[in-house]
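RESIDUES AND SHAPES:
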Amino acid sequence: MAQDYDADVIVIGSGTVGSNAAYELAKQGKSVIILEAGVRIPRWKLIESFRKSPRRQDYNGPYPDQPWAHTSSSHGYVENDGDYEMVANFLKLVGGSTWHWGGATWRFIPSDFKMKSLYGVSRDWPIEYEDLEPWYDKAEYEIGVAGNLQEDQSGIRPGETWPPRSREFPMPAQKNSYMLDTFAAAIAPKGYEIVAEPSAMMSGNYRGRPGCVGNNNCAPVCPIGANYSGVFHADLAVEAGCKLITDATVDKIEKGPDGKIASVHYKSSDGSEARLSAKAFVLAAHGYESPKLMIMSDVGNSNDMVGRYLMPHLGLGVDFFSKDAVWPGRGPIQQGAIFSHRDGESRSRHSGMKHAVNNFVPNENITKRLLGQGVLGSELDERIRHDSARYMSLYSMFETLPDPANRVQLGDKTDALGNPNIRLTFNVDDYCRGAIDPCIADFTNFVEAMDGETLNMSRDLANHDHIMGTTIMGDDPSDSVVDKDCRSWEHENLFVVGTGNLPSSSVVNPTLTAVALGIRAADTIAREV
């Protein structure tokens, strides 16, 4: 007798990766249920919340933070016991954390997939760039990416389009801001080149989204929806036939007697509980939340690898006044990058680097600085105008190595539903710290090129909100969580997708890579159920 299921596939998490996977499955005729711990909030309400929030520089500020659906801003929800305190900004609502991102959609380059073979550090992936390239392409056209084709993103292949591509970007890159063009011209004599950042902030209308008009508050929320968010594919998935259940915090993944996953259990804030069954399951919660749920459920973790290999992106920053006005805050908050140290032999000794120019409106920071100096009255107004026009800020991004001692575990506290919080252990490796001196040397050159006055050039490593490695993929069941298809080694109908899959961290934002892997996994599932 055939077994009755609630759906062909259940997807846990409605963020960018989960919603893209769900949409792909629905397009291929599968019945899909999406479970989301948070709720659906219209953009206009989030914009109003942002306008009224006193925490303008807190990217989580406009978003709900519920006792049963925490954000990373919740006091005590994320604990640290390593030598580095890290809390990646994340949200729980339909669409997930790409509600408040900068839209950077870089591909990893071929060498990122073969770090151990090429440089003797990190890990090799169980797939190569060529295996993922068609899925990168599909992901770019799903979410909409604007970029320049003929550019070298490796820093060591001038004149080439790198990484290789099968076709053009969906849309051309946005035009540079005056600040970026001015900066590019100034640093060129020192041997630096600006590469356009592939971005999900569209340069024109795309799939019902308007082109960017330069509002400049891409984070915490784009007011017009030009910047992509997972909510777009959550809505597309629903239109394609998926059932979306909100206020549904999954707290147990249930194993069946045959080793397959039989069902998931979830709780709602009103105290109700439910159990749902399916032929296959996609866990796409978050780089913290997915391993947490697997550990809670004693699923896919007989090798004790779930939650290990935690890799963030760390980096430095520099703030300075340019001699001449550059007028920051016009256009998207991110536009270009410098890859002089992204790839090459030096990666065998220390992390590669990405340098990027911040393009946010600096008036609040400038005003606080001046008030701290006792500047008041008409002089304050004049100085805000003068200093804000000349303010420049750059940041770097370093890769970290996959160390099994760096990990996500269950904490000792519980939330309103009785589920545990998150405890992190992360210690910074010498490989990452080795990039500090060459980074500072670059920053010094940048300030000199702009005839600038340094305000801050810290050697303290900052966290960039990217979480990788915690559900790591590999070709050996003894030291990885999922295989090359993102399938659990222990449960053939459980697929775990997200940035946690990545075996190496590179120096670029991991979102596009996670989406590509998620769509690829969904295609595999669709052929099996």
The longest strand covers residues 273-283. The longest helix spans residues 511-526.
